[in-house]
Amino acid sequence: MADGTRAALRERAAATLFVDTHEHLLEERTRLAGPGAHDLQPCLDAALLFFHYARDDLWSAGMPSEAQAAFFAPEGDPREKWRLVEPYWRRARHTGYLRAVAETVRILFGVEELDAGSFERVGQRMQAEAGPGFYRRVLREAAKVELCQVNSLQTSAFQETEYPDLIQQDLSLVPFSTGLDRRAVETMGQRSGLAVGSLADWHRVIDWAFATYGPRADAVKSQAAYQRRLDYAEVPAGDASPLFDRLLTGEMLPSAERKALEDHLMRRCLGLAAEHELPVKLHCGYYAGTDRMPLERVRRNAADLCPLFAAFPRATFVLMHIGYPYQDEYVALAKHYRNVAVDLCWAWIINPLASVRFVKEFLLGAPHSKLLTFGGDYTTVENIVGHAALARRGLVQALGELVDEGWLSQGAALDLLEPLMRGNARELFPILRRGAPVGT
């Protein structure tokens, strides 16, 4: 019976496209421009598959900075590059980050085991197959992704994409609030055509951004949790205005005053997000990178956000990355607050088994309609293929175990795949419900 359930779930999952709710994809034209076109694209050989996320586990496994620099260099003998990475690949190859690389080369290039020769061949295939339109082929045919939502790292606020039917874009809140400095003010002032000499002027710029980009954005996004706690207090404009004036002069505000200004601006943005029916995506939990995560602050994310959920009942909050490693609290938030959903984006490669357990516990603890189950969180398109394969495997395992343990019938488990993989996202994001254009 268990084998039959797994087989039916695997077949249904393989036939269902994901709505991918979180990527950092560089635009295809940037990829085709070659190494150096963006800091997140240092090379175009097979080492590129290791650059986003996998390099963190290589570093954690002991790979020296000099070896990483040579491995990710734009030029170099691929066999020599493999010699550099192989010891650390072997130490870390079972982590989600490295498994995603292995799955990518297996599915896209038919490589079952990486070695010096296959590493070289993968790089050759990557460069040969990258051309106009290859994003669509990789996403739709290989990753089986219907569309993906991108938090662009290429521009401030909003990226105009070349494939609006395939790649939707978040409106970033960072340049308007937690990433605010005099340069950001000048950039957005020039882009909007509005002079900025006061907080009231900056409010008008924010209004302009929501009016201009909101109809084409899938959501608003903030990754402020990398820089600060998520405890946004209510700060009146009268208190924030002199702080903004001082920031305009280039003054570095003391931390408490900086927080007060950010708090005021973030709450204004949340009110506009509710008004424009834009879900609010918030980074929660684990940090990308290495040797810099203040776990005590990460632990506070869930509790810090509760006052915002109550203060903005008309806003929909999407809590990203399951808040790992404090994911139990995120089941409780989705269960308790009507306006909270949780997203497994990135989580499958941070810790696959923790993600399996999370799916099982979420489905028995909160409405399944509030769970989004895939976002690759990558800058490199090929890696999405491997991550999507791990997510499908994890969903099948979670649902299969719930059937085996008597919590779900086989029919109920099969019926859950469509909403978990795409239907919930289509209900949660208004841009998908209304069929509005997503680009220029």
Summarize this entry quickly.
The chain is of the alpha/beta class and 440 residues long. 55% of the residues lie in helices and 9% in strands. It starts with a helix and ends in a 6-residue tail after the last helix.
* Spans where pLDDT lies below 50 across 5 or more residues: 436-440
Q: β content, as a range? A: 5-15%
What name is given to the CATH topology of the largest domain?
TIM Barrel
Give the count of helical stretches: 20
How many extended strands?
8
- Residue-averaged pLDDT: 96
- Spatial extent as radius of gyration: 22 Å
Overall 3D geometry?
Answer: globular
- Distance separating the two termini: 51 Å
- At the first level of CATH, the class of the largest domain is Alpha Beta
Profile the largest sheet. 8 strands, parallel
Name of the CATH superfamily of the largest domain: Metal-dependent hydrolases
Count of the separate structural domains: 2
Along the chain, the helix and strand elements come as HEHHHHHHHHEEHHEHHEHEHEHHEHHH
Which architecture of the largest domain per CATH? Alpha-Beta Barrel
